[in-house]
Amino acid sequence: MTVVADTARWGKYEDYVPVRGERMGAREREHARAQQHAAEEYIRRTAAGGGSTAEEPARLAEIRDRGDLTEAEYQRAEEKLLG
């Protein structure tokens, strides 16, 4: 994403100013990978029958609170758990 710079205000600066740095994109990709990994891990644990059903809502809430599940994903998973 770029923004046109106000040349009167910025004087000697060029026409475009980069807004999004390379590291920001790398952090976003890493966060997306972590979210995907957490969701896949939860699915594996659930499919394998690990843990009691009573513990699952707490695990789901923990994953949601970390930001690895959206509220909509959390609601769908909780509905499936509670039947």
UniProtKB/TrEMBL annotation:
Name of the protein in question: Short C-terminal domain-containing protein
Top-level division of the source organism's lineage: Bacteria
Region (Disordered): 44-66
Compositional bias segments (type: Basic and acidic residues): 56-66
Species classification: Bacteria, Bacillati, Actinomycetota, Actinomycetes, Kitasatosporales
